[in-house]
């Protein structure tokens, strides 16, 4: 299965009291599908501030997102943690909500071995029938889910893809040796075009909240063989790819959304809103 070319890791909208703004979830999903052309949405991922959402909030957000999307895009739910038993329990609950896939981050903080990573993901995948997308983000987890372990995991039938934030060398090895039809998505916005060139399926993106339509155009140019146009658009979008990480995410992208009239509120501690200087810089990206 494919989740399309541009997958948006959706922010969670909050109100002035930093409670989930349930009234804003549907407009945000509609905006991402209709205006930014997202093929799929990740709900309750890192960009959705999953570390500070309660399990009840996550279940309600995921259920509502499935209902609002109504088949117009695929819904991938973030259910991973650094506790295998808890991840299995939560993944089973989420699977009953009708999601298209589960996104499982590599266990963070406890830094398991490669064999530990393999057994962790294998146990979760075997506990559900829902498709599983692995998520390798060493900069956040402190451990790299290496190419050989990913290749080994790709042999498990319902592990269908990975979001990899390492480097093109690792992604190239995965693409070369993984099971047939196993998909590799880049998790780095600025790597969208280079990753396509080595055979990745697409991008799981933060920038697509505000330039998703343009990213789809860039990808279309590349797939049609218009390499120069794709490269020119990549260079034009690159300041946004990098600039929206001028402060800990998702504070900058929430600020950028507000510039477009899409109110998603602030961020929960320990994250904080962007500073005035950071806000001015983000505004300059869209002038």
UniProtKB/TrEMBL annotation:
Its main location: cytoplasm. Its EC number is 4.3.3.7. It is found in: Cytoplasm. The active site is at 135 (proton donor/acceptor), 163 (schiff-base intermediate with substrate). Signal peptide: none annotated. The record marks 46, 109 as: Part of a proton relay during catalysis. InterPro entries: Aldolase_TIM, DapA, DapA-like, Schiff_base-form_aldolases_CS. Keywords: Amino-acid biosynthesis, Cytoplasm, Diaminopimelate biosynthesis, Lyase, Lysine biosynthesis, Schiff base. One of its GO terms (biological process) is lysine biosynthetic process via diaminopimelate. GO terms for molecular function: 4-hydroxy-tetrahydrodipicolinate synthase activity. Pathway: Amino-acid biosynthesis; L-lysine biosynthesis via DAP pathway; (S)-tetrahydrodipicolinate from L-aspartate: step 3/4. Pyruvate binds at residues 47, 204. The keyword Amino-acid biosynthesis applies. The keyword Lyase applies. It catalyses: L-aspartate 4-semialdehyde + pyruvate = (2S,4S)-4-hydroxy-2,3,4,5-tetrahydrodipicolinate + H2O + H(+). Catalyzes the condensation of (S)-aspartate-beta-semialdehyde [(S)-ASA] and pyruvate to 4-hydroxy-tetrahydrodipicolinate (HTPA). PANTHER family: 4-HYDROXY-2-OXOGLUTARATE ALDOLASE, MITOCHONDRIAL (PTHR12128:SF66), DIHYDRODIPICOLINATE SYNTHASE (PTHR12128). Belongs to the DapA family. Homotetramer; dimer of dimers. This is 4-hydroxy-tetrahydrodipicolinate synthase.
